[in-house]
Design brief:
By secondary structure, the protein is of the alpha+beta class. Helices cover 48% and strands 18% of the residues.
Length: 360
Amino acid sequence: MILTIILVVFAFSLLVIIHELGHFIAARRAGVKVEEFGIGFPPKLFGWQGKKTLYTINLLPLGGFVRLRGEVGSDKAKDSFAAQSTWVKTKILLAGVTMNIGLAYAIITLLCATGLPPVYFETAPSFGPIAPIKSDDPSLTVFQVAKGSPAEKAGITAGKVLVAIDGQKLDSNEQLRAFTKDHKGDEVTVTLREDGRDKDYRVTLGQDEKAGVLGVAAFNMKLARYPWYQAPIAAVGIMAKLVVATIGAFGGLIVSLFTQAKVTDGVTGPIGITMIFGEVMKFGWQYVLALMASISLSLGVINALPIPALDGGRWLLVLLNRRNIRVSHRVENALHLVGFVALIGLMIFVALSDISRFGK
């Protein structure tokens, strides 16, 4: 688990640093002075002064940041952020989002051409003539086993191929759930394959559907692959679906918090990601890359939303200023502070939900 935590911190920090690198490159290209490029967050451990920028390594390994001249305040020097045109400010503010989305696109394109795991969709989608190469292997693989579930009590572990239940072959997680729902409370024989050999497990199914009648998530782990010349187009379609799903999940989270004071299913934070990361590492590098692409895309999409303290919120204020709707620096700083505090509170709430969900 410690190794998994280290890898998750490294992966998340890398994605945030790539985001900040986008701001850094865009600012430097526009002639805006980058006063500091920090890896991690203060307190500072050490740093070195470059020709134009102070580079620092900081104690908290949770990403990074850039500090631009004139980003906060009324500095109107030629090389300050405040002195730039609306278009230049837009390029700088959205460069981080672009880097995250671009990285996600590159990874998903690679996976579409070499093997896309069923992390985003159980079945790889088609887009008209753009379709994955058909596979004749519908085998399900146990991806996750719930703690305290009938499956765990019977000795079933993740990574094994689900051959059949009571001799009936199942081709999807939906068929598995339907079968177990119809046989609640029954004792069944679950046949699993590992290292080429089949083994039977006697399992008494539970009664509580919410807790999991069998207690496993099983998917067709066969990697989907598109023809190489279709992969870039398929990646666009897949990312469009993921963007819609990300915005929908975030919106659902906000609504759920205000109406039910709980985190919606399917939304997870750093703790949940750590648990998921530990599972996907068992299945190979494609699964790790798919998760990295999903996190990178989520970082980009969420940062683009018009919320104070995020890039989209800062860009909205730039547009308002362009329309002669003036927001004082004092009000702007207050808005970003409130947005930052709200986001931290949201992260804490999601983390507590993760502890409750994964700690069972």
